[in-house]
Inverse folding.
């Protein structure tokens, strides 16, 4: 076992060094406070490993992303989202028999309890679908309270989330809910529930169905990002699967995280409607006090191209061409990217397009409204959150997550008596 030596206030402390399966090096500080009385300080956790995980590997410098060892490029090209769900949760790609059984369970559990439909009546039509999704997912624990059925609850969650998402869209447009059908695949069912109406069925085109599978696969997991860390944080207290995932949905909603895909499209529309050049917006993004960021750019881990953005940029082109569509926002996005990637500010900070920069173009081409974009991200990320929660719950070394702090407040002081206070004023 190799070690790291810490010299602190004249004393040396030996700390174990652990190596990941891809050669990553970590200093194990689990004994640091007991040995030295000191803690580490890492706001935003940019240098802190919260767990050991066998699910997803990212090399941010090389732009590598693998789920259970498989490169994202291969999974995106050769698999369906349901196969990737199985891979992330069970650790291997399903055999034909395993896939048939898994798919049948997902189909069978697509309905939500009829009473849950009443929840939708309480939401205003303007309710953001992420508010509905997080509330409804947490409420699933009221209908399936027995956390002992974790495998069944995993199936229920994976399957019902797409129904809840589609119902939240129908609620927002004032249309009747369309029930899932047993003769459709996971993605076909979702699009059917989104866009069919009682008077007219909806059959998703193969190009759009392929694009939806691709989008969901690319979002399926991303190691210890903000929302996944939230799922682990909440789950570490012993909270049930539904409560833990609901917390992850809320974390994903933030504009710096999964909410960015909605903000990217709004930014591109703002650029086009402003009459100003994309260059003007790039310049604004460089001004700290402007409060404006280039949404869809930058990443805590990727200091090279986000491989998902590369795949999505190509897919956006292909899907629009196959649908005979043009989207001026794609032209604006490509122009923005070309300007930013040659600008010293972005080059020095290694700011590249991330997964959110092009995903909205595809969602738009599929007819999905902007306020549903982060829900789409959540549907994709669901198997990853579930796999990470399951890995954490199954790890006998898991302890409740409880970080320490550096206290920066008042030192001890006592409440002045009235006499002391009066004496001070004389
Ligand atoms: C996702 O973690 C994951 O894996 C997340 C995710 C996943 O799959 O789960 O990949 C999904 O959340 C992608 C990110 C989506 N968010 C956005 O696109 C929002 C815009 N991006 C930024 O807010 C930012 O880049 C973050 C939040 C993504 C990363 O933030 P960091 O790592 O804390 O970096 P930082 O804010 O410290 O930025 C470093 C520098 C700063 O400038 P300086 O202080 O050094 O002068 O780069 C600048 C920042 O001001 N910067 C930007 C910028 N992003 C960073 N400047 C302009 N526009 C931007 N988008």
């Amino acid at each position: 076992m190799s070690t790291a030596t810490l010299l602190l206030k004249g004393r040396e402390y030996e700390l174990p060094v652990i190596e990941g399966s891809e050669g990553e090096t970590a200093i194990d500080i689990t004994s640091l406070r007991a040995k030295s009385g000191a803690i580490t300080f890492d706001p935003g956790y940019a240098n802190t490993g919260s767990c050991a995980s066998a699910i997803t590997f990212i090399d941010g410098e090389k732009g590598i992303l693998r789920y259970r060892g498989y490169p994202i490029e291969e999974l995106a090209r050769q698999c369906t989202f349901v196969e990737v769900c199985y891979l992330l949760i069970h650790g291997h790609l399903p055999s034909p028999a395993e896939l048939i059984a898994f798919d049948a369970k997902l189909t069978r559990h697509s309905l939500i309890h009829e009473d849950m439909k009443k929840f939708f009546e309480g939401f205003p039509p303007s309710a953001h679908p992420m508010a509905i999704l997080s509330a409804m997912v947490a409420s699933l624990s009221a209908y399936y309270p027995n956390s002992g059925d974790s495998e069944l609850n995993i199936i229920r969650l994976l399957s019902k989330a797409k129904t809840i998402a589609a119902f939240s869209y129908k609620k927002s447009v004032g249309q009747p809910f369309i029930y899932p059908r047993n003769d459709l695949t996971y993605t076909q069912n979702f699009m059917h529930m989104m866009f069919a109406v009682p008077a007219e069925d909806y059959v998703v085109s193969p190009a759009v169905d392929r694009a939806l599978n691709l989008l969901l696969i690319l979002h399926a997991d991303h190691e210890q990002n903000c929302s996944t860390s939230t799922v682990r944080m909440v789950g570490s207290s012993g909270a049930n699967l539904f409560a833990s995932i609901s917390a992850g949905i809320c974390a994903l909603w933030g504009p710096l995280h999964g909410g960015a895909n909605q903000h990217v499209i709004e930014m591109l529309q703002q650029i086009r409607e402003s009459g100003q050049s994309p260059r003007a917006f790039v310049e604004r993004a460089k001004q700290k006090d402007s409060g404006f960021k280039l949404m869809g750019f930058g990443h805590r881990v990727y200091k090279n191209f986000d491989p998902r953005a590369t795949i999505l940029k190509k897919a956006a082109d292909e899907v629009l061409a196959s649908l005979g569509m043009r989207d001026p926002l794609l032209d604006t996005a490509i122009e923005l990217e070309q300007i930013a990637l040659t600008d010293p500010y972005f080059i020095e900070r290694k700011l590249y397009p991330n997964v959110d920069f092009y995903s909205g173009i595809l969602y738009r081409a599929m007819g999905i409204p902007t306020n549903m974009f982060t829900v789409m991200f959540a549907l994709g990320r669901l198997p990853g959150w579930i796999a990470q929660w399951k890995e954490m719950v199954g790890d006998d070394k898991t302890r409740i997550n409880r970080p320490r702090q550096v206290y920066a407040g008042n030192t001890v002081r006592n409440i002045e008596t009235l006499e002391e206070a009066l004496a001070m004023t004389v």
About this structure: The chain has a mean pLDDT of 95. Residues 44, 222, 225, 256-258, 260, 285, 293-301, 349, 351, 354-356 surround s-citryldethia Coenzyme A (CB under 6 Å).
